[in-house]
């Protein structure tokens, strides 16, 4: 059965997501919504959507849309997600899930109370190489996991008018890139008991480069870094008592991984994504909806909240203010 999608937003992420529909299993883009009718119409023409809605409310009310992908800036996710839940519309929310932990908690509580499907669009978890890495860990291939290392950096010239650097639009390294490195730690280690962050900020106060040290009561740890000031390899290591796994650069959408076990030759595995890589999360949403699930067991809402809590703690320690957009008209 074809899953019919609507997209809220017409920016870069919306366009990237829309390009992957041909690679998904039985998915179709049928509608797009924007606050500007002309923007929705242009996006619909470019990406083959049948309908263009001049408001998010119209998109959420469209009976031909089975699920909505929220691709607006982070601080707008909170109000849009709550409106989607109120409309009974299943939703996939682009990362970071919200700008604040409190906002994420409100969305999760509302979705669970209403029994509406909701998932964070953490495409990394569904990449074939990452799926295989989880399987290898579960099989005991590297023994007991003790630590995770991950870096993700991109060099961007500071421009306070760009969304990446705008406090009002959720700019900064943590919400854009830190969400990835923290997520890989959450995936293989679980929720930390201690979070310590150190980093730099831009003149307007948003975070530029941040290092995170996550600690666990049993001695496990994660050492993570993200940056908008420096291009880094984008490597992730999952270290165990009998070896380690490397998700090769760039780990957030890898095409390969390497298993290195003590005393044995490395085992390289080539596992590229289908299309650009977004199709795998589309397929997961369709699978969950077909099974009547309101949450994904692969990208659970509990994990979303745990990652959001680490980001909130880190930003608080750095003195970086974040807030949800309370002015958005839905």
Which terms would index this structure?
alpha/beta, eight-stranded mixed beta sheet, 330 residues, Rossmann fold, 2 domains, globular
Poorly predicted runs of 5 or more residues: none
Number of strands: 14
- Taken together, the total number of domains comes to 2
Overall body shape: globular
Question: What's the name of the CATH homologous superfamily of the largest domain?
Answer: Dihydrodipicolinate Reductase, domain 2
Number of helices: 9
Could you describe the largest sheet, including whether it forms a barrel? 8 strands, mixed
**Lateral strand order in the biggest sheet:** 8-9-10-7-11-12-13-14
Strand content: 15-25%
CATH architecture of the largest domain: 2-Layer Sandwich
Distance between the termini: 30 Å
H/E series, N to C? EHEHEHEHEHEHEHEEEEEEEHH
How much helicity do the residues have? 25-40%
What is the name of the CATH topology of the largest domain? Dihydrodipicolinate Reductase, domain 2
């Amino acid at each position: 059965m074809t899953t019919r999608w609507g997209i809220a937003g017409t920016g870069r992420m919306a366009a990237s997501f829309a390009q992957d529909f041909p690679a998904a299993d039985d998915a179709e883009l049928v509608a797009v919504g924007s606050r500007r009718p002309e923007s929705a119409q242009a996006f619909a023409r470019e990406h083959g959507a049948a309908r263009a809605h001049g408001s998010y409310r119209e998109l959420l009310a469209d009976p031909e849309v089975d699920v909505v992908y929220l691709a607006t800036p982070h601080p707008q996710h909170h109000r849009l997600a709550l409106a989607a839940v109120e409309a009974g519309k299943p939703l996939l929310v682009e990362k970071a899930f919200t700008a604040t932990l409190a906002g994420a908690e409100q969305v999760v509580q509302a979705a669970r109370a209403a029994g509406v499907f909701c998932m964070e669009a953490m495409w990394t978890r569904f990449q074939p190489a990452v799926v295989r890495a989880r399987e290898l860990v579960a099989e005991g291939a590297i023994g007991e996991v003790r630590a995770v290392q991950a870096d993700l950096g991109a060099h961007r010239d500071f421009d306070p008018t760009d969304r990446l650097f705008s406090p009002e639009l959720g700019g900064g390294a943590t919400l854009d890139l830190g969400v990835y490195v923290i997520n890989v730690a959450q995936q293989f280690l679980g929720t930390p008991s201690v979070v310590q962050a150190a980093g730099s900020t831009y003149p307007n106060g948003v975070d530029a480069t941040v290092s995170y040290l996550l600690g666990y009561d049993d001695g496990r740890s994660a050492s993570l870094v993200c940056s908008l000031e420096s291009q880094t390899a984008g490597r992730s290591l999952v270290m165990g008592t009998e070896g380690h796994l490397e998700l090769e650069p760039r780990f957030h959408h890898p095409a390969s991984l390497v298993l290195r076990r003590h005393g044995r030759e490395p085992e390289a595995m080539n596992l590229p994504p289908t299309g650009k890589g977004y199709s795998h999360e589309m397929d997961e949403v369709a699978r969950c909806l077909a099974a009547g699930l309101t949450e994904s067991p692969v990208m659970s809402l509990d994990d979303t909240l745990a990652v959001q809590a680490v980001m909130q703690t880190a930003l608080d320690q750095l003195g970086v203010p974040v807030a949800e957009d309370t002015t958005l008209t839905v």
